[in-house]
Amino acid sequence: MITYELCVLFRMMPKAELVTCLKRTANAIYNKGGILRKLENLGTKDTPYKISSHGLVHRQASYFVYEMNVPPANLDDLSEELARDVDIVRKTIFRKNLDNEVEDCTLHEELQPAPYRKDVKDLIAKARKLDKPKFVYGNNLKYYPSRNNYYWIY
Predict the structure, then answer these.
(1) Which member of 5, 53, 54, 142 has the lowest number of beta carbons within 10 Å of its beta carbon?
(2) CB within 8 A of 98, min separation 6: which ones?
(3) The sheet that has 3-10: what strands, in order across it?
(4) CATH number at residue 44
(5) According to the 3-state scheme, what is the secondary structure of 46-113?
(6) Which regions in the chain score pLDDT beneath 70?
(7) Which phi-psi region, left, alpha or beta, contains residue 25 (left: φ > 0; alpha: ψ -120 to 50)?
(8) Residue 154 confidence (pLDDT)
(9) Any domain includes 38
(10) Which family does it belong to (predicted)?
(11) What is the number of other CB atoms lying within 10 angstroms of the CB of residue 132?
(12) What is the domain extent for residue 33?
């Protein structure tokens, strides 16, 4: 399954109520066929702007990040269920990029001077492909409009 991150902002509430909200959100993930990988607490912070949710204005929130695996077909249902929760101020689901491609790199390649490294050579080759013609003065005007006395060219 694909790994997703669910970023949730909970309204300000006592710790006991916050724990029940976290469990309720985790159960919603389980009920949609998901697996919870990690739960990270980012703390209680001021929101960057006033957020209006469920008829209330929130200026502070508790930030949490769930790392989970959920079938893509169930994401919309999960998002809809979380949107109905009155304790959640804002929620966003991101697809987590797992870069499994690791380039082999040796110390010998990194210690070479910049012009001899492969990645620098590739950048230079790409830049040469993008060479554009340079600006040519004398653009078929018989004078330079930027000069005060309109120097005429013959």
Answers:
(1) 142
(2) 3
(3) 35-53, 56-69, 3-10, 88-95
(4) 3.30.70.60
(5) EEEEEEEECCEEEEEEEEEEEEEECCHHHHHHHHHHHHCCCCEEEEEEEECCCCCCCCCCCHHHHCCC
(6) 98-103, 105, 132-154
(7) alpha
(8) 47
(9) yes
(10) Belongs to the bacterial ribosomal protein bS6 family.
(11) 5
(12) 3-95
